[in-house]
Every structure is written in C-alpha cells, then in structure tokens.
Amino acid sequence: MKALVKAKAEPGLWLQDVPEPLVGINDVLIKVHKTGICGTDQHIYNWDAWAQKTIPVPMVVGHEFVGSVVSVGTNVNDFHPGEIVSAEGHVVCGRCRNCLAGRRHLCRDTVGIGVNRAGAFAQFISVPMTNVWHHDPGVDEDVASIFDPFGNAVHTALSFDLLGEDVLITGAGPIGVMAVAIAKHAGARHVVITDVNDYRLDLAKVLGADVALNVTRGNLADVQKELKMSEGFDVGLEMSGNPAAFRDMIDAMCHGGKIAMLGIPSEPMAIDWHKVIFSMLTIKGIYGREMYETWYKMNVLLESGLNIRPVITHRFGADEFEEGFEVMRTGMSGKVVLDWTIFD
Ligand code: NAD
Ligand code: ZN
C-alpha cells in the first residue's frame, strides 16, 4: 500500500510502498478515505527536537482520518465491513487506575497513533476495536476526517458552562476557529478571539466570532469597552501556546473566571501568579478528547446544526502532500485534508 513514512531521521516525509498492516484478533482494518494534517505532523515533518526524541524511524505517520471498515479480528463483533469510522488517536493501557475506573482519557500510559505506532497517512490502518468510532451513515467525510482536532476543540470549549457567558479564545488556529463555532452553538453571549494572523481571524469571523482581534493592532481592554463588558471574560480557552496570549488572557478574566488550556507552549512560561490568585481563577489542563463523551458530543453537536465545515480551507490528493504541508507552513490555512482514495 501507499503510505507517508518518516523514513529518515531528517526533515521530510516520504510517500512509499509499505506492507499492509497486520490485523490482530481485537483489531479493525480500515481503508483510509481522507486524513487531516495536524500541527503534530508538521513537527514530525520538520524533525524538531520533540520529534527527534519521540518518533521511531521508520514509521507511517498521521492520526486524523476517516475511512471504512475492511475486515475485523475474530474477537470483534461491533464493526462490520463498509461502515464509516474514525479512530481515537490515543490507545490507552487499560490497566492503570484511571483506565480501570473508566476515565480512559486520563490514562497514564497512552500510545499515540502516528506518533508511537503506525499511523493513518496510508491506504490502510489497523487499530484496536476499543479505539474505533462509528460515524452516522451519511456523515460528511471531510468533517469526519477532522474529528480528532474537532474533539480537542469540543473537549476544551465544553470544559466549563458557556451559556450566556463571555468567552475569550486566544489563538485562531484550526482548533481555536472551531471552538468559536462550538461556543456560539453552546449559547455564549460574546465570543472574542485573538491572533496575529488576519487570514485566520477572518476565518474565525466566518465561524461566528463576535470580535476577531489582531493583537498587533488592538487590545482586549478596548474590545471589552466596545462590547460593554464591565467585569472581564467568564471563560478563557487558551489555544495558541503563546505566553503573551496567555498573559493577555489572565489580565482579561473576571474574578472567578475559568480557563481551559489546550495550547502547548514550546518552553516553560512565567505568569503573574498574583493575578491568578487575586482574581481567583481556575486553570484546567486539557489533553486529547474524553473517551468517549467528547466523541458523543461531536456527533450530537453536528446533528443539532453546528457547522465546522468552513474550517477546512484546502484539499489535496495524498500524492500532493507536500503542497498541503507548504500551505500550513505559510499560516494561510485552516484545516488541510488529503484524499487517499486517489490510489484506488
Ligand atoms: P496552530 O499553531 O495552528 O494555532 C495557534 C495560533 O496561535 C496561530 O494561528 C498563531 O498565529 C496564534 N498566535 C500566536 N501568537 C499569538 C498571540 N500572541 N495571541 C493570540 N494568538 C497567537 O494550532 P492548532 O492546531 O489550532 O492548535 C492549537 C494549540 O493547541 C497548539 O498550541 C497545539 O500545539 C495545541 N494542541 C494541544 C492538544 C492537546 O491535546 N492539549 C491537541 C492538539 C493541539
Ligand atoms: Zn491507562
């Protein structure tokens, strides 16, 4: 089969012919239709310090995908050929305290698809049945291909009650932009998003942001005045990983405000803890998606009219993957989706 392989310990990815994956008795073999490119894939492509210490070489990469079931192992009863599915990208240990208690998203020992084990940028992928998610028949496969980052956005956005609240999102990357639509759908009063990139701020407007602020040209204090907000934001969703953005957020929160942190800073960062303490803020770290409550929510949010489709700005055949990575490098993109059915 064709697959995008981290074949050498140097920058780049290589489209190669590799053997089809093995299917264990608990596994589901899936024919991949479409995949999303994630920031993680960019790190792996660029071969930065994190990738160098994390990614085994050679390995098929990628974890955001939709496809159809081809065959199943002998222990598998719930999945059948032809069904449209995605997979949760974290394979949990099943044995730690949290796993045993059913809190699988808090597993202490996860293995990442396309990070620690063979990924989805391929014609076929084999995953444990416990990781497979059934889509509703007729699901939009472009949207289904990005359930993984959509899930990051849902998990973060729904961490705190949003009904009637004023919400600040820092970072209008694909996940921040999706979080705008989710927060509006969940009944937030004002949704303000910040970035330094006008292309992405415009996209956030399309997804329903009340204000999309370029922090190189304005500040949150003025936005709050404009919106007649007297007490600061009730909920913050940090989705940039940028220390300056996080500090802006802390300054802009109301007393008792709640912050969900998804963005991953590249280095340890300092903040003014006086502000956290005297504003009595709650800060919650977010990783991945809840298994499988977030997946359930994604389904029903779409069913109840949430539209995240505009976040997908570019589509390429999988053989044009270099163009996909290039457009992401420019920052002039939302989600980039690759089509693997071109090899059929
Ligand atoms: P992204 O890198 O595409 O988006 C980050 C955005 O932040 C960019 O558009 C950038 O221009 C913007 N930004 C930079 N400086 C800023 C500033 N001062 N103020 C406001 N915005 C600023 O990332 P993404 O794919 O949308 O993911 C969002 C974040 O979440 C990233 O940090 C990513 O690493 C992280 N992430 C975390 C998890 C998790 O499980 N915790 C999962 C996926 C992604
Ligand atoms: Zn575990």
Write the layout of secondary structure elements.
Layout: E1 2-6, E2 14-17, E3 27-36, H1 39-46, H2 49-54, E4 59-60, E5 64-72, E6 84-87, E7 90-91, H3 97-100, E8 111-112, E9 124-128, E10 132-134, H4 141-144, H5 147-157, E11 166-170, H6 174-185, E12 190-195, H7 198-206, E13 211-214, H8 220-226, E14 233-238, H9 243-252, E15 253-261, H10 273-278, E16 282-285, H11 293-303, E17 312-317, H12 321-330, E18 335-339
Helix pairs in contact: 5-6, 5-11, 6-7
The structure holds nicotinamide-adenine-dinucleotide (NAD) and zinc ion.
Largest sheet: 7 strands, mixed
Give the radius of gyration.
20 Å
Q: Give the number of helices.
A: 12
Question: Could you tell me the strand content as a percent range?
Answer: 25-35%
| Structural classification | alpha/beta
Describe what this molecule looks like in 3D.
- The chain has 12 helices and 18 strands.
- The protein is of the alpha/beta class.
- Strands 3, 5, 6, 9, 10, 17 and 18 form a 7-stranded mixed beta sheet that branches.
- Strand 14 (233-238), helix 9 (243-252) and strand 15 form a beta-alpha-beta unit.
- The mean pLDDT is 98.
- The structure holds nicotinamide-adenine-dinucleotide and zinc ion (ZN).
